[in-house]
Amino acid sequence: xxxxxxxxxxxxxxxxxxxxxxxxxxxxxxxxxxxxxxxxxxxxxxxxxxxxxxxxxxxxxxxxxxxxxxxxxxxxxxxxxxxxxxxxxxxxxxxxxxxxxxxxxxxxxxxxxxxxxxxxxxxxxxxxxxxxxxxxxxxxxxxxxxxxxxxxxxxxxxxxxxxxxxxxxxxxxxxxxxxxxxxxxxxxxxxxxxxxxxxxxxxxxxxxxxxxxxxxxxxxxxxxxxxxxxxxxxxxxxxxxxxxxxxxxxxxxxxxxxxxxxxxxxxxxxxxxxxxxxxxxxxxxxxxxxxxxxxxxxxx
Length: 300
Ligand SMILES: Nc1ncnc2c1ncn2[C@@H]1O[C@H](COP(=O)(O)OP(=O)(O)OP(=O)(O)O)[C@@H](O)[C@H]1O
Fold this sequence. Notes:
The protein is an alpha/beta fold. It has helices spanning about 45-50, 95-105, 110-120, 125, 135-145, 165-180, 190-200, 215-220, 230-240, 260-270, 280-290, and strands at about 1-15, 15-30, 35, 60-65, 80, 155, 185-190, 200-205, 210-215, 220-230, 245-250, 250-255, 270-280. It folds into 2 domains: about 1-215, 3-Layer(aba) Sandwich (Rossmann fold); about 220-280, Alpha-Beta Plaits (2-Layer Sandwich). It has a 6-stranded mixed β-sheet, with helices on both faces. Strands 11-12-10-13 form a 4-stranded antiparallel β-sheet. It comes from Georgenia ruanii.
């Protein structure tokens, strides 16, 4: 479990105090993947750095597995951290990067090869210097590094950056498996579809503050139903006549609960082919939640 309690970070910039993170509290539970989202400059990296003891909070506190990061003995054996995949020593080979850390963490050397294999780095790639690595290879090595100490928690900032589609799917399965085995995963990413696919819980921040948090399914749930039928216009008329709101959005989306949709369909003699709770996608939730904190006004 990872907790942030009233974390606040202020920086001095040209004599003025800039609040990067303000009163951020959340819990990433064991056995679950927690997605940590926000627009550029929202304060995600600053928060993750405070969780990992790399930045000192102005106020508030954070714990990983019940203790402040700095109080964890041999922290790499408890929490795997990937904050900047490009930060590995460019002159070392991938295998050397892991071997040095394995020695420092007192991890058996045999684990290095096991992890290179697990993250899909070939023996040739592992023998190449890190400065020759692509972004995706950096990410794979960074993840191997994070997993090296067989930690109970992972803190990952944009781990899927630069991965190809197969790599992104592999990453998703790895994180899912890690959490299903009881691990805690805190995952910051701009890839909303990926986060939606893997995160059990979400924390959305903007302007340094928590804007929304909770279970992914609950946050994405919208009242009403999404329906497909053999005659959507007729079903829409029947639902409207019964006082429900209706909009056609690929399927028919209505404020009516499933039972009312069934009644309207029965009355209008329309065959329903699909009926499920209405949900907004994460992209919609993200933009609605962070609308005041986005950077759309900044030209690309
Ligand atoms: N060392 C620093 N000194 C001054 N200001 C900083 C420092 N680090 C971060 N900031 C400011 O704090 C705010 C939050 O930055 P942070 O990097 O945490 O955002 P982020 O959500 O990780 O953004 P991104 O998605 O672009 O990575 C920004 O306004 C940034 O300019």
